[in-house]
Every structure is written in C-alpha cells, then in structure tokens.
Amino acid sequence: MVFGIGALISLAHKGFEPVTEADAAVVAEQLGRPPRGLRAVAARCPSGHPSVVQTHPRLEDGTPFPTLYYLTCPRLTSLVSTLEGNGVMREMTARLDEDADLAEAYRSAHESYLADRDAIEPLGTDVSAGGMPSRVKCLHVHLAHTLARGPGVNPFGDETMELLADLWPSGDCAAR
Ligand SMILES: [Zn+2]
After folding, report:
1. Is residue 172 classed exposed, middle or buried when 0-12, 13-18 and 19+ CB atoms within 10 A define those classes?
2. Which element (helix H / strand E) includes 91?
3. What distance in Å separates the CA atoms of residue 38 and residue 55, rounded to the nearest whole number?
4. How far is the CA of 94 from the centre of ligand 1 (A)?
5. Nearest 10 degrees: CA dihedral of 130, 131, 137, 141?
6. PANTHER family from the xrefs (predicted)?
7. Which of 16, 82, 123, 138 is deepest in the core (most CB within 10 A)?
C-alpha cells in the first residue's frame, strides 16, 4: 500500500505525545543504545512505533544536544541514507543560491527550529541542525523536522518526504 503525502502527514503528525516506557524501549531498540534526553514522541510510523523523538536541548549532565528532532525508525533512516548517497544534498544546497524564495523558506525553517528549542531551553547559540540555514547537510534532520512539525515548515524536509513517499514503510516497519 502506498500512502499519499497527505495521508503520510496525518499519520505522522498527531501532535507530541509523552514518552511511555514502551516507547522508550522501542527507541532503544531502534537506535541500538539507550536513548538520551527523550522529551516527547513527535511522530509515529504507520506501524505505530516512534519515528521522530523530540529531545531535551541538554542531556542530564548538561551537555548541549542541539538536534531537537531525531529520526529513529531504522527503515526510514535507511531510506534517507540511500537518498543522501545519491547526491541530492549537493543539488539542494546549490538551489539555495538560485532560488531566493527557497532560501527564505529555509531560513524560516532554521528560525522555527531555534524558536522551538529556545522555548524549552535556550542553548545560547544560533546553531540549529542539518546545515541550516545556508547548507543542506543531513536529510535525516530535515525529514524529522517535517514529520514533527508538519508540512510547510522545512522545505527540504517536505521534499525528502515527497521523494520517499512511494517507498514509505507502510504496515510493518518493526524495530528489529
Ligand atoms: Zn518505522
């Protein structure tokens, strides 16, 4: 079964939920290590497991953890890695120089990301993640941002989702 982009978003974007013990256990399995700084489940796969978690801006020991939205589903991370391997990030970065509207939307994504993080705890830095606002360096970050916040916030997260729409894990993308 192939999901349309609207269905994908509605499946993924139900608002942030508290992390249950079961969610934390699944995320540990997805990452292959104990998750750190979990704050919320920001999106889920059609299978129901977390696909994006929101993390605390600082870990328990005070270490800054600037990546606020983290893609955890191994199926999705693998699909994104394959896409990254095709050189799409170089092409996306190049388009920032040619398309003023895109560059503006990307800067807004950067500012939105920082605003979300600062609302939890300001880290005193304007470094966001994924290369924002001037380069495209990690599509995992951008897809996580789109899944967490819905479409229209991060243009390259939206594009990544569209590029993967036909491959999207449908029923069963279990952690193992
Ligand atoms: Zn999944």
Report:
1. exposed
2. helix 88-98
3. 5
4. 30
5. 10
6. CONSERVED PROTEIN, DUF501 DOMAIN-CONTAINING PROTEIN
7. 138
d(CA 157, CA 8): 13
Dihedrals phi, psi of 152, to nearest 5 degrees: 90, 0
* Strand order across the 69-71 sheet: 38-44, 50-55, 69-71
Report the predicted TM-score, pTM, of the whole model to 2 decimal places.
Answer: 0.90
Q: In 10 A of CB 166, how many CB atoms? A: 8
In this prediction, residues 93-107 reach a mean pLDDT of 98
Measured in angstroms, how far is the CA atom of residue 90 from the centroid of ligand 1?
A: 26
CA of 70 to the centre of ligand 1 (A): 13
DSSP collapsed to 3 states, 55-85: ECCECCCCCECCCCEEECCHHHHHHHHHHHH
User: Angle between the 74-85 and 88-98 helix axes, to the nearest 10 degrees?
Assistant: 70
Task: For Cα atoms 117, 122, 128, give the angle at the middle one, nearest 5 degrees.
Answer: 50
Residues lining ion ligand 1 (Cβ < 5 A) are: 45, 73, 75, 169, 173
